[in-house]
Design goal:
Elements: H1 18-25, H2 28-33, H3 35-43, E1 46-51, E2 57-63, E3 73-77, H4 87-98, E4 102-106, H5 128-140, E5 146-151, H6 153-164, E6 172-178, H7 184-193, H8 196-216, H9 218-221, H10 232-243, H11 249-256, E7 270-275, E8 295-300, H12 316-326
Length: about 325
C-alpha cells in the first residue's frame, strides 16, 4: 500500500454538495476562473495527429520539457464527451509540466472535434487503439518511464490499458484513475435515477458529436439518424445495434466494466481515487473489484465526480495527490 503525504480533501462550504462539485468541475465558470492557467498550457503545447499501428488517427496535444528525453512522460485521458482541453485535464497538465513532466493529452476518437479523422464511431470498448496510442507515445519518448492518469471513462480506460497491454511493448510506471467507471450498468442506473440535469447534459453533448459525425461521413450515418437519441440507455442501445458487433447492450456494457476479475492482471501499480458523494460512480462498486496487490483505492468523503475543487474552482488537492504518486518510485 502506497501512502501519499497529502491531507484529506476538504470541500469548501459552498461545495459540500457532490452535485455542485461535479457540475462545476467541467463548467464554463471553471474555465473562466482558470483562463490564465489554460492560456499558459495552450502556449506551451503542440497539436498533433498520431496514427496507431492499426491505422486509427487520434488528435493529441503534446506539452514537452526543453529536454523531453530527460523527463518522465504522463499520458492524460479525459472522460466521455470531454476532451484534451477539459478543465480538469488542463489543470493537471499545468501542475505536471511545472514539476518537470512531459504531458501527452490524447483525445478519444470523435472527441475534441476529431469526428472527421476516422469513419467508425467511438464506443467504450475501443481499447486496442488506446493501447496502441500509448505504445506510440512511448516509442517517441522512450528514455524515461511512462505513466497514465485518467478521469471518469478515461480512468476506466487507463486501468484496462494497464491490465490488457503487453508489458514487453508498453512499460508502465504507474496508473492513476480518478472516479473511474467501475460497473457500466450501475453508473447508467445512477444517471437515470439522479437529477435530470445530468442526462440532459450528456445527451446534448453526445448529439453534438453525432451530428458532426453524420456531417463528416454522410454516406455512413445520415440515414441512421444517430443524433436523434432521446435518453442514454436507449441511445446507447441504438448505437450498439447499428455501429458495433456486440449482441446487445448488456454484452457491450460488460465489455468495459472493470468489476469482477477484469483487473486481475495489472502490470503496474494502480491507484483509484473515489468520492463517496460522486453522483455518477457508485463508490461501493469498488468492493466488486478483484483483489490485487498492485491496486490501491483512496476513498474521499467529498469531491463529487472528478471535482475536488477549492473556492477558486482550481483542483490543487487532486493535482498534488497525483504529483505525489507519480514522483514515487515503484
Amino acid at each position: 500500500m502506497i501512502t501519499v503525504a497529502v491531507p484529506a480533501y476538504q470541500a469548501p462550504r459552498l461545495l459540500h454538495s457532490g452535485h455542485i462539485n461535479s457540475i462545476l468541475a467541467s463548467s464554463l465558470t471553471r474555465q473562466w476562473f482558470n483562463a490564465k492557467l489554460a492560456q499558459e498550457v495552450r502556449v506551451g503545447s503542440i497539436s498533433r495527429i498520431i496514427t496507431t499501428a492499426s491505422g486509427v488517427r487520434l488528435s493529441t496535444r503534446y506539452t514537452l520539457q526543453s529536454r523531453p528525453d530527460q523527463a518522465p512522460t504522463v499520458v492524460l485521458l479525459h472522460g466521455w464527451l470531454g476532451c484534451s482541453e477539459s478543465p480538469y485535464i488542463v489543470s493537471l497538465t499545468h501542475a505536471l509540466t511545472r514539476q518537470g513532466f512531459n504531458v501527452v493529452r490524447i483525445n478519444f476518437r470523435d472527441h475534441g472535434y476529431s469526428e472527421h479523422l476516422n469513419p467508425e464511431v467511438f464506443h467504450s470498448c475501443r481499447l486496442n487503439e488506446m493501447i496502441e496510442a500509448c505504445e506510440y507515445v512511448q516509442r517517441e519518448l522512450p528514455k524515461q518511464h511512462l505513466s497514465l492518469v485518467g478521469f471518469s471513462l478515461g480512468a476506466n480506460f487507463a486501468l484496462r490499458i494497464n491490465a490488457d497491454s503487453d508489458p514487453d511493448r508498453l512499460h508502465l510506471h504507474r496508473v492513476i484513475s480518478v472516479c473511474p467507471v467501475l460497473s457500466a450498468e450501475n453508473s447508467l442506473i445512477a444517471l437515470e435515477n439522479g437529477p435530470a440535469l445530468y442526462q440532459h447534459y450528456f445527451i446534448y453533448r453526445w448529439r453534438q458529436i453525432l451530428r458532426r459525425k453524420e456531417r463528416a461521413f454522410p454516406e455512413l450515418y445520415a440515414k441512421n439518424n444517430l443524433a436523434q437519441i432521446q435518453d442514454l440507455r436507449g441511445g446507447t442501445d441504438y448505437l450498439v445495434q447499428r455501429c458495433t458487433n456486440f449482441a446487445d447492450l448488456t454484452q457491450y456494457m460488460d465489455g468495459y466494466s472493470i468489476v469482477g476479475d477484469r483487473l486481475h492482471k495489472l502490470q503496474a501499480p494502480s491507484h483509484i481515487i473515489l468520492a463517496k458523494d460522486d453522483p455518477i460512480i457508485p463508490w461501493q462498486d469498488h468492493q466488486q473489484l478483484a483483489a490485487n496487490k498492485k491496486l490501491n483505492i483512496y476513498l474521499s468523503e467529498q469531491g463529487g465526480h472528478c471535482g475536488f475543487l477549492n473556492a477558486t474552482l482550481h483542483s490543487p488537492w487532486l493535482d498534488q495527490y497525483c504529483l505525489q504518486l507519480l514522483a514515487t518510485k515503484v
